[in-house]
Design goal:
This protein is mainly beta. It is about 10% helix and about 70% strand.
């Protein structure tokens, strides 16, 4: 099922690229592609099927994750499209200081439990450069409203001797936000982005700030900080998780 989702996503991305290339004679087209790297700290609580509200740090001892992903950027005049893919896995082993129940399975106090929180993250974003002040090769400021869809294919699993429990959920999350950029010179810029949504007690927030270095014509390097906060409840299931930390990105850039 996961492989099918990836194939469908890739077909949609290729279709968008084909449309943009077809329109390229009317607009300046920019393509940037490269790897991303994060050093993420996970915190928060989860609950499954009306069980115990479990703290992923204090109860489960989950370690940080350092996922490597890929980013594709397509720019066409004032229109910009970004696609991201990353696989994240936070795992840990800890002796429980209390008895907890997760998805109808009980893990007793003083039991050693292996835990994993993992998710595949697919992101597609559109932004429109609404405001631009300044000149090329000088101080320039731009502001873009954005629409973004993040798809989380997530699971939580707890294992001990003779006991195993897991909970999985696929969450498509649409958000609205803004992207701001300050170009100090042709070689250096500062970018900030935030997007969010909230409804009926559920909420999602994403934020990112990076310093972009452009040492040569075809290369960009981003160094910054990125975080997400998700709060979701469904029936007797509950997720309240924050993931944040260092963000790095490199890109090969080509303009038609």
């Amino acid at each position: 099922l996961l492989e099918l989702k990836r194939k469908v996503l890739m077909k949609r991305i290729l279709l968008i690229i084909a449309v943009l290339l077809f329109c390229a004679p009317s607009y300046a087209l920019e393509i940037a592609v490269g790897p991303t790297y994060q050093d993420l700290d996970l915190s928060g609580t989860v609950k499954a099927d009306g069980g115990t509200e479990i703290d992923v740090e204090n109860d489960l001892g989950l370690d940080n994750d350092k996922p490597v992903g890929v980013n594709l950027h397509l720019g066409m005049g004032k229109h910009n499209f970004d696609f991201n893919l990353a696989q994240l896995e936070f795992s840990g082993t800890k002796t429980l200081a209390r008895t907890v129940t997760f998805y109808n399975q009980t893990f007793n106090v003083n039991t050693s439990v292996e835990s994993t929180v993992e998710y595949d993250l697919y992101e597609a974003q559109y932004s429109y450069k609404l405001l631009e002040i300044g000149k090329e090769d000088m101080l320039k400021v731009s502001l873009s409203p954005l629409f973004k869809v993040s798809i989380y294919d997530a699971s939580v699993e707890l294992k001990s001797t003779g006991v195993n429990a897991s909970y999985s959920k696929t969450l498509p999350i649409p958000t609205l936000g803004a992207l701001g950029e300050i170009d100090f010179t042709r070689y250096l810029s500062l970018l900030g982005q935030v997007s969010a949504i909230g409804y009926s007690g559920d909420s999602y927030l994403e934020y990112k700030t990076v310093l972009r270095l452009k040492p040569v014509k075809y290369l960009n390097f981003d160094v910054g900080y990125k975080g997400t906060s998700i709060k979701f409840s469904e029936s007797n299931n509950f997720i309240d998780i924050d993931a944040k930390g260092l963000y790095l990105e490199g890109a090969f850039v080509y303009k038609f």
